[in-house]
Design a protein that fits this description.
This protein has 91 residues and is α+β, with helices and mostly antiparallel strands. The chain is built from three helices and two strands, in the order βαβαα. The protein folds into two domains: 53 residues, no CATH class; 27 residues, no CATH class.
Length: 91
């Protein structure tokens, strides 16, 4: 998680498309620190957060998310395992 494209979330860039909140999770603290700096740099601290959390230990209530983007993590979890568990979050 580098936050490299986070500037695209600024409302002035896409005012009709970008209205939500973003939670970035990772267990890599240096990556989270970099992400948090980028959030502050582009002025999105009101709706973008960096959270130190394993994807195996997420504790969000049902219905918390409209979209989940989890590029590459399916390989860590295992696609078949995730489907077998019937988890509401498919990464």
């Amino acid at each position: 998680m580098s936050g490299g494209k986070i500037g695209h979330l600024r409302k002035e860039k896409h005012p009709r498309l970008v209205q939500g909140e973003v939670i970035g999770i990772d267990i890599d603290q240096p990556a989270l620190d970099k992400f948090a700096r980028k959030i502050k740099e582009v002025g999105l601290t009101d709706r973008v957060w960096a959270l130190s959390c394993s994807m195996f230990d997420m504790d969000f209530p049902d219905g918390s998310f409209d979209i989940i983007w989890s590029e590459g993590s399916i390989y860590a979890v295992g696609f078949e395992k995730r489907l077998r568990e019937g988890n509401q979050i498919i990464v």
